[in-house]
Specification:
With about 180 residues, this protein is mostly helical. The chain has helices at about 1-5, 10-35, 40-55, 65-85, 95-100, 115-120, 125-135, 140-145, 150-170. Helix 2 (about 10-35) runs antiparallel to helix 3 (about 40-55) and helix 4 (about 65-85) packs antiparallel against helix 7. This is RNA polymerase sigma factor.
Length: about 180
């Protein structure tokens, strides 16, 4: 986080980054550990994630909102996945092989709406862009910058994610 502070000039934005750190660090660390299975690598992933948060701090309006929570967790996941790939360059691994989904994602809680349950079942890359686009309201270009993707990759992930969502909802007997 200290490196992220160096990227921010305004004291209010530094205070916002610090609040994000203390509010979400444990959650972000938990998610990075799930992916990397190593505390040291997870710390590295968090450092990378906080650098990206610092670069995008002006886009965060409310620290204690669900959209900020989603945003920081997605950045932690993305940083952890990137580190995983760097560690395992010699093997070919898909994004689905890298991430271990929490058990509830196989069987979402009954309290979720059908749409929310379908979103939870999406592979992480699709879920990330779908949530950033439709829940948080970011543009494809902003998502591409945050996740370090090309805009065309974001567009493909959104398109494929929407198709998977339709499939999941149709399997549940819900027509859109």
């Amino acid at each position: 986080m200290i490196a992220g502070m160096a990227l921010i000039d305004e004291p209010e934005e530094q205070a916002k980054l610090e609040e994000i750190y203390y509010t979400y660090r444990s959650l972000m660390m938990y998610r990075a550990r799930e992916i990397l299975h190593d505390d040291y690598w997870a710390e590295d992933a968090l450092s990378e994630a906080f650098m990206k948060i610092a670069k995008n701090i002006q886009k965060i309006r409310d620290v204690n909102s669900s959209e900020t929570r989603h945003f920081v967790v997605i950045l932690a996941e993305r940083a952890a996945i990137d580190l995983y790939h760097k560690r395992n360059k010699h093997t070919t691994v898909s994004l689905e092989d890298v991430t271990e989904e929490p058990e509830y994602e196989e069987h979402p809680p009954q309290s979720l709406s059908p749409l929310a349950a379908a979103i939870v079942k999406l592979p992480p890359s699709y879920r990330q862009v779908i949530l950033l686009k439709f829940s948080e309201g970011y543009s494809n270009r902003e998502i591409a910058q945050m996740l370090e993707y090309s805009v065309s990759k974001v567009e493909k992930l959104i398109s494929r994610g929407k198709k998977k969502l339709q499939k999941y909802l149709q399997e549940e007997g819900i027509e859109l």
